[in-house]
Amino acid sequence: MMINKYLKEINEALSMGETAKDKMLSLVNFFKDLLKNNPGLFKLLYDFTGLAMWSSSFNSLLKDLFNDLSKMIEEKILSNSALGENFRNYSPRAVARMILGAMFGTGIQVILDSNENEILDALNAIQIIFE
């Protein structure tokens, strides 16, 4: 299934690098590459999101996808890292959800305005969680 392939690729990206910052950079680069070279996959995900609002079967699949992605970010990046001062009062789970939301939200903006390179570079700002 496409979702399993997507999860596997993200898991591989999260396995690159030694430090949490390296792993985050690898995840950011994965998303950037996907947005540049396969925007259709993101468009499909956003279509899937719309369907999930109305269909319980799609809702369950998408909820599981987001839970799995958040858990990967939490376990592979956040569980053994020192978060920046502004994020220390939040659980790793909450920060993982924020990261995922920021990446998908930025992805929507890139797809809607593919001529604006600065939007794609906004993904780099996610590194602020370590400062």
UniProtKB/TrEMBL annotation:
Top-level taxon of the source organism: Bacteria
SUPFAM superfamilies per UniProt: Tetracyclin repressor-like, C-terminal domain (SSF48498)
Record-linked InterPro entries: Tet_transcr_reg_TetR-rel_C_sf
UniProt-recorded name of the protein: TetR family transcriptional regulator
Higher taxonomy: Bacteria, Bacillati, Bacillota, Clostridia, Thermoanaerobacterales
